[in-house]
Amino acid sequence: MPFKRILRLKKRYGQHILLSKGVIKAIVERLSIQEGDILLEIGPGTGNLTRELLNTPLKKLYLIEIDSQMVHELKKIEDDRVEIFLADATQFDICSLGGELKLVGNLPYNVASLIVENTVIHRKCIPFALFMLQKEVAQKLLKGPSWLSTFVRTFYDLNYVMSVPARFFFPKPKVQSALLEFVRKPDGEMIEDEKDYKRFLTKLYSMRRKAIKSKIEEDILKMANIDPLKRVEELSVAHVLLLYNLSKTHEVDKK
Ligand code: SAH
Asked: Parallel, antiparallel, or unpaired: how do β-strands 102-106 and 128-134 relate?
């Protein structure tokens, strides 16, 4: 394999290079890149997808890559539209780049959830994202139950684009992969303080098989018209959001 000869791929950074030209093409098509679009690719690695992205009329392509060896390789791409950051995508202040961004990435699976969380935190500047994830993680985000699934689906509609078998990567990962699309909801801005919302969700989804009445006060459940014997894992996103907002107003009323 050519990559192995040139670069030592690092397990700790979840480096699995996407080899399939067909999948790379499908990713680029799905992004339906228009003239003037600004894109951010997370974990570009050797630049397989990056080079294909540059065959579109995008205006600007930001790259965030944590491995300096990969960054060194990426610098060989000669295109004025590219700007590379040697940085950690789980922490990166994405909106500081300016403008509305489309995100794309064959994510490092060990930190994929953190990158998804950081995407949601920066949703103000991210109307659209397309991520390659571990298939199981993609399915869990789609359906829940988990705090992260509800967190994501409060702000984004998710679409399962396709499954991608392990043999399309090098080295071959132990897990199957899937491409998941995030489309920001037009009316998603009902949360002012997402850190507070996250706290509420992580608490709610711990021991999620318990009846909801063990977590939420009964008068709030009554106001929301939710059966107190329902289990947390049975709640829809809309119900969770309603409970959160009612708990907030309830807190204020109590003060
Ligand atoms: N997109 C490339 C490589 C995907 S592998 C391809 O499809 O061929 C995942 C990439 O994410 C690797 O290059 C790895 O170095 C990078 N990476 C790992 N952790 C990261 C982090 N926290 N922030 C940014 N990049 C990271």
From this structure: parallel
Q: Determine which residue's CA is closest to atom 17 belonging to ligand 1.
A: 43
d(CA 79, CA 173): 31
Is the CB of 44 within 6 Å of ligand 1?
yes
To test the ligand 1 pocket, which listed residue (4, 12, 13, 54) has its Cβ within 8 A of the most ligand atoms?
Answer: 13
Tell me the C-alpha distance between 134 and 226, whole Å.
34
- Within 8 A by CB and 6+ apart from 212, the residues are 221, 226, 227, 228, 229, 230, 231, 232, 235
Per residue in 186-224, pLDDT (tens digit) is 976 678 898 999 999 999 999 877 889 999 999 999 999
Q: Tell me, using a 6 A CB cutoff, whether residue 16 lines ligand 1.
A: yes
Distance between Cα 54 and ligand 1 center (Å): 18
Encode pLDDT of 106-119 as tens digits: 999 999 999 999 99
C-alpha distances in angstroms, 71 versus 97, 144, 195, 206?
A: 18, 35, 32, 39
> Nearest 5 degrees, angle CA 86-CA 165-CA 26?
65
